[in-house]
Amino acid sequence: MSDQTGTVRPVQGGRILVKGAHLLTQDPAIGDLVGDVLVEDGRISEVSQSIEVSGEVRVVDGSRKALLPGMIDTHRHAWQGAIRSLGPSWSYPQYRDHVQIGLGPYFEPEDVRIGNLAADLMALDAGITTVRDESHIMNSPEHSDAAIDAHWSSGIRCVFGHGWPSTEAESWQFGSDRHHPDDIRRVREQVLNDDTARVTLYAMLRGPELSTPEIACGDIATARELDLRISMHVGLGEWGVKQQAVRRLFGSGELGPDMTFIHCCTTTDEELRMMADHGATASVAAALEVFMPGLGQPATNRLLKAGIRPSLSVDVESAVSGDMFGVMRAALAYQQLLSAGVAGGMDTGKDLPTFDAADLLSFATIEGARACGIDDRTGSISPGKEADLILMSLSDPNLLPANDVASALVTGAHAGNVEMVMVAGRILKSEGRISGAEDIVDAAAASSRRVHRAAGLQIPTSD
């Protein structure tokens, strides 16, 4: 349920006992089993083959269902949630011209709030309980506050990446000499200063691939002064080959375990090893990378060879679907192309390790938590962690017979199979129905129309 502004009113869970589910825990000390999970005070208190409790408890029948930790999307530009599916055949330059340069300057704070709400609700509906929002729509402090407010309202867990503006977009990327917006200090000190909260802050920096090396070093120093983790887009097509951002960071002594590198499509194998040696993490946006010419191919297998188990991400819903099932399938499809000898330039002639469905679920859960620096509180079904859980039907026709549960989910699942979604013990989707989605439909459509008109661009229509 939600109010008219799209604020979620979650079902208050109290004590919840999920009985008899197939548990894909992502906790090596527990493993996979058919069993029960008890949630108390928003946390997982017990995981066992059989749990008996006394007193008041809500019992959820998990038979013929799979219980997983909620999926974690480590890189989504959530502000684009209300301008979905504009360009599934766009190249990277076309995306930048139409969305970041064309539409971005015309987003008002309310458009950002609506876009983020739409993105969050779609994510929750598909079993994503945590999103790392790479928010490069920081056109004003009001835009920042609206973006953050949406994440509080939706009920999702969010690691909010304070980025740069989409006004004067060309001056903020590819050799930019502008420092990161100073408003990140206000947000850190006054808005998101609790690193244990459901919505937390980190720094989405441009790094030496999108700004000058001097600016990159200054921005990194600011983020570390504010005690913030850092993300950077690197390995973006031919520009990534030319700039070699990771090598530059290694050379300047800035490379560290507080960094997550996004894409890495054209990041060299040597740079990937540098990342591994320094404890850095990576985010692969496989669906976008196979859909959008100009970025390069997914680096999943090369990252594994370097010793990095990557996380997974959606990137932009303006070009690809916002669920993690499509991302996992895209990563698997590209691996099959590698096996067939049809590879991109970075993969040619490599003896690369492979991954399977169980690995992909790990990338989408616990590895995502590690990349966000929140694996102490989510990412696995482990006693003591916050109860970010999803329950998926295994008896739906598209998943039968589900003999191998991980394979069935990776190859065949969709949002409709997600029956229940829980964040910190609060149920946000129940019996297949997401809270609040009906309230955002009209607002999202109106926002998209307004922004397109303001930008002087044709409004998408099916007429």
Mean pLDDT, all residues: 94
Overall CATH class of the largest domain: Alpha Beta
Structural class: alpha/beta
Total beta strands: 18
Q: Helix count? A: 16
Give the helix level as a range of percent.
25-40%
Under the CATH scheme, the architecture of the largest domain is: Alpha-Beta Barrel
Which stretches are poorly predicted, pLDDT < 50 over at least 5 residues?
Answer: 1-10
Say which CATH homologous superfamily of the largest domain is assigned: Metal-dependent hydrolases
What do you see in this structure?
With about 475 residues, the protein is α/β, with parallel strands linked by helices. About 35% of the residues lie in helices and about 20% in strands. The protein contains 16 helices and 18 strands. Strand 12 (about 260-265), helix 9 (about 270-275) and strand 13 (about 280-285) form a beta-alpha-beta unit. Helix 2 (about 110-125) packs parallel to helix 3 (about 140-155), helix 2 crosses helix 16 and helix 13 crosses helix 15. The chain is globular, with a radius of gyration of 21 Å. Keywords: Hydrolase. This is Cytosine/adenosine deaminase-related metal-dependent hydrolase. It comes from Saccharopolyspora phatthalungensis. GO terms for molecular function: hydrolase activity, acting on carbon-nitrogen (but not peptide) bonds.
